[in-house]
UniProtKB/TrEMBL annotation:
UniProtKB keywords: ATP-binding, Nucleotide-binding, Transport
GO molecular function: ATP binding
Entries under PANTHER family matching the protein: ABC TRANSPORTER RELATED (PTHR24220:SF685), IMPORT ATP-BINDING PROTEIN (PTHR24220)
Origin species: Streptomyces ureilyticus
Gene3D superfamilies assigned: P-loop containing nucleotide triphosphate hydrolases
Organism domain of life: Bacteria
Family matches, as InterPro entries: AAA+_ATPase, ABC_transporter-like_ATP-bd, ABC_transporter-like_CS, ABC_transpr_LolD-like, MacB-like_ATP-bd, P-loop_NTPase
SUPFAM superfamilies the record matches: P-loop containing nucleoside triphosphate hydrolases (SSF52540)
Domain ABC transporter: 16-253
CDD domains in UniProt: ABC_MJ0796_LolCDE_FtsE
Name of the protein this chain belongs to: ABC transporter ATP-binding protein
Amino acid sequence: MTTTTPFAGPATAVAARASDLSKVYGQGETQVVALDRVSVDFRQAELTAIMGPSGSGKSTLMHCVAGLDSFSSGSVRIGDTELGSLKDKQLTKLRRDKIGFIFQAFNLLPTLTALENITLPMDIAGRKADKQWLNSVIGMVGLADRLSHRPTQLSGGQQQRVAVARALASKPEIIFGDEPTGNLDSRSGAEVLGFLRNSVRELGQTVVMVTHDPVAAAYADRVVFLADGRIVDEVYGPTADSVLDRMKQFDAKGRTS
């Protein structure tokens, strides 16, 4: 595995960790190994992109680490909490209190205003929003003049900004994005990626996103590459060109170089 030299600076704490993580579907001849003993750390106050060919296991890895999917063996921790030891209600509470999610399809409720969508997870949990933090998040994503609008009154980029603000508003320990710019045009996608980048730089947030777009990956501090359910490379300080070159190797060889 070839890895570029990490950024210089003090070591940061780990927001999430997978250790020897495996995910197997089916049995016998129909068995599919989606993740094959993957070990990876996601550090606090960093933006990590997960990339790889179709079927490489990148979305499965994110879903398992985020507590959205079960795993066959190994270990996943969010902070100091081991996910495998949690019962369903405990896992639901952890996802609600410590994790933020940004999905490709936005997942906004059409009957609620932008502000109501942003505060919905906290409303469900019976917690009041930190007004100062909420105003900072709303200001960062540029939604102050759109809070009373419903999703149908917003552009795609504005809807995704609402989704970003919703993920940030509850001060989660880590945010997971599944192709967060996949349904956006290039300009709107760049805006959303800029907001995620700023949330890491200015708010100290931790973000992990799955993407197939080298331009999106270039916003990350680090890119982790998967192939055949295994981590095969990681690059620090990526550029769109360096990521594209790495992905071309997958396309050309159908395997890691």
